Amino acid sequence: MATTDLDPLLRLRQSIAANDAPFTTTTPDFTSPTEATENLATATHLQFNNPQQSYSLDTPTRFISSDYPVDLRSIWFAWQKKDVAIPDYIASAQQLNEELSGKAGGVGRVQNLVFVERLDLITWLEGASEESEYIKGLDSDASAARSAQVASGAAGGVSTIPSSAAGARGGKTIDPRLQEIYNGERRMGDRNTVLRGIKPTDFSHVRKIAETFLSRSRPSKPQQNPNPTSNLVSLPKNQKPSTRRPDPIILLSPSASSLLRMSNIKSFLSDGVYTLPQTSTTAANILHISRLLPSIDPHRPLRFILVDTPEQFRPDYWNRVVAVFTTGQTWQFKG
Question: Pick from 96, 9, 93, 100: which is nearest to 48 by CA?
């Protein structure tokens, strides 16, 4: 006899707790063993015992996935496949959907639950947790209290939860096993959380540093002169404005323990060969090397100046420094 007195999801949990699992049938009114079947593609109802109840497999349940209720067929399928691996579960769901679509009318489809939803459902059906974040509450507390009493009697002495205690528990309690899985998940974020981090960061100092470099690259505005020919008159006849790029400077460490010194830096930068530095004190304190850099000038090699001390530097020389080799002592960064 078909009836809907009790919630099908709660009825399934009660049957599992009583070790009296339901079975699928091909008719709503089960009268003969020949009407029972294990094939979900041909079954239409789920039959319970003690008391006898029959539910259509297309009945929506209180289990919500992606804002939609999951039907009883998908719930029962997930319980049957609770011990299989995720790839096997997905493959079985696809195969069953193909069989269902091949039926006359193509009615019915198994919803593939994600891992967290499937684990939460199985944990709740087994009785390991009293609440589930994916299961909506019953419409009446009286129905829930009556179902809890039936479940406790079927389980053989499991204590029931008083309705007053259930009402006093306002927030949801997550099962410890499910919480452990949540703790292992990787937190996802958008571009704002990735860039800002866990607290706001002030990047105004970066703007100030960038402004110094931008101001150097901006061409200075020529001063207006009422007499345009005055500047040309003051220059010698054969003198032309200099367009030569100043030579970049590479600063070496003067420390005796430095691995790269004036005696071996030229072979290292020019030929890529490292030789031990010489301890002679007569080595030159300025060297020149030339290197063709196609990204800057593909036709003319660029000359670099190598020095091991900034004592003779003018203020504008620091703008030409492109590399510094240091051994890391604090005194090398002073001055």
Answer: 9
β pairing state of 249-251 and 321-324 = parallel
CA distance 320 to 306: 12
Name residues whose C-beta falls within 8 Å of residue 296's C-beta, 6 or more positions apart in sequence.
302
> Pairing mode, if any, of strands 286-291 and 53-56?
unpaired
Q: For the chain, how far is it from start to end, CA to CA, in angstroms?
A: 96
Calpha distance 52→265 (Å, rounded):
93
CB 59 within 8 A of CB 73: no
**What does the alpha-carbon distance between residue 4 and residue 54 come to, in Å, rounded to a whole number?**
8
Q: 321: part of which helix (H) or strand (E)?
A: strand 321-324
State yes or no: pLDDT of 18 exceeds 80: yes
Looking up tokens 């999801």 gives 9
- Residue 260 has, within 13 A of its CA and on its CB side, a CA count of 20
Nearest-angstrom CA–CA distance, 154 and 149: 9
* pLDDT tens readout for residues 259-278: 888 888 888 988 888 888 88
DSSP letter (8 states) at residue 162: P
pLDDT in tens, 229-240: 444 444 444 555
Separation between Cα atoms, residue 147 and residue 144, nearest integer Å = 5
- Considering only CA atoms, which of 43, 7, 15, 47 is closest in space to residue 29? 47
The residues, ordered by sequence, that sit 6+ positions from 50 with a Cβ below 8 Å of its Cβ are 18, 20
- Tell me how far apart the alpha carbons of residues 15 and 151 are, in angstroms, rounded to a whole number: 8
Secondary structure of residue 244 in the 3-state scheme: coil
How far apart (Å, rounded) are the C-alpha atoms in residues 301 and 101? 74
Strand partners, 71: 60
Q: Is the pTM of this model over 0.70?
A: no
Are 93 and 108 in contact by the 8 Å Cβ rule? The answer is no
> Is the distance from CB of 42 to CB of 31 less than 8 angstroms?
no
pLDDT of 279 above 90 = no
- Which secondary-structure segment (H or E) carries 110? none
Please give the torsion angle defined by the CA atoms of residues 107, 116, 152 and 24, in that order, rounded to the nearest 10 degrees. Answer: 20
| Nearest alpha carbon to residue 57 among 100, 88, 120 | 100
